[in-house]
């Protein structure tokens, strides 16, 4: 018994020291090397501070909608719904989001709605939408703001983030930054 317990206690102590001390300092040091020193992507707009790396709620028709959140955009309660695609309650929620989108975007067919506009991400705080999710909202925003669709298309292109190193991930658009650019569009 001594033969197993002593090594287990040693391993526990080593893991405790490593993961609560050394590993934490390594991650902190790596964060300090980033642009904002590990404080996130801070955006100050009209005197208010926002974090562009955390999803923001945009439901006003004059803005690009953000991705739905399973936690109502509460960063302290990050998490997905954990409901599968066969769950009736989940399907009702998604259908309600589709119906709401169609009411606010007449002329768009259900099949044209990208999934990221009606389903929440795993964290519930995804700050980005896909390029098709932005484009499907062009007509509504152009009509409300009196801006040409071509100008909005240019705005989308200017705010599109390419995949990491051109390979990893997909093109995406940060909704907060896109909507701030939209407000600043003359």
Automatic annotation (TrEMBL):
GO terms for cellular component: plasma membrane. It is found in: Cell membrane. The keyword Translocase does not apply. The keyword Membrane applies. Pfam families: KdpC. One of its GO terms (molecular function) is hydrolase activity. Keywords: ATP-binding, Cell membrane, Hydrolase, Ion transport, Membrane, Nucleotide-binding, Potassium, Potassium transport, Transmembrane, Transmembrane helix, Transport. The chain crosses the membrane at residues 12-31. It is a single-pass membrane protein. Signal peptide: none annotated. InterPro entries: KdpC. Belongs to the KdpC family. HAMAP family: KdpC. The system is composed of three essential subunits: KdpA, KdpB and KdpC. Part of the high-affinity ATP-driven potassium transport (or Kdp) system, which catalyzes the hydrolysis of ATP coupled with the electrogenic transport of potassium into the cytoplasm. This subunit acts as a catalytic chaperone that increases the ATP-binding affinity of the ATP-hydrolyzing subunit KdpB by the formation of a transient KdpB/KdpC/ATP ternary complex. NCBIfam families: PRK14002.1. PANTHER family: POTASSIUM-TRANSPORTING ATPASE C CHAIN (PTHR30042), POTASSIUM-TRANSPORTING ATPASE KDPC SUBUNIT (PTHR30042:SF2). This is Potassium-transporting ATPase KdpC subunit. It comes from Niabella soli DSM 19437. The gene is kdpC.
